[in-house]
Task: structure prediction
Amino acid sequence: MVKVLELANKEVLHKVSELYKQVWKSEEHSIKERILKHSLYEGFQGFVILSNEDKLIGFSYGYTSLPGQYYHELLAKEFYSEQYNKWLKDCFEFVELAVNPSFRKQGFGNMLITKLLEEVDNKTAILTTQIDNKPARSLYESLQWKVLKEPFYQNNSKQPYVIMGKELM
Result:
């Protein structure tokens, strides 16, 4: 038995920050600040899954993608007008998904994605992931996400990404 909760309080945010560092092998401390900033965006939704022992299994969050937002503008540069109208005009931006390595391949990533998107009113959803992140890409493709652009380089980064989209309506 697990608990699915909204991504909301300081204790949960601390657990999310620790998991983020573990999953991404990062010392980045800004995930808390990014979540707090993004929680003010239109359409924000975020969820965590906790075990019965209150151990963080995973989290996901996103929001409505709107002109003027950093990532919206970054992605808009990658699309022709027709693609922009289809994928970014009425779009939910799926920002983060992380599952504790000891809980992977048990359906929790699928559960977090499904929960996050089930009440979204947007026509499409969009995400980016590293081109070589085969487990993530496999998960998204199994949920009918499709590749929109590959490769995609964020701000002259040498790390190639893929832009994926999903029609919601």
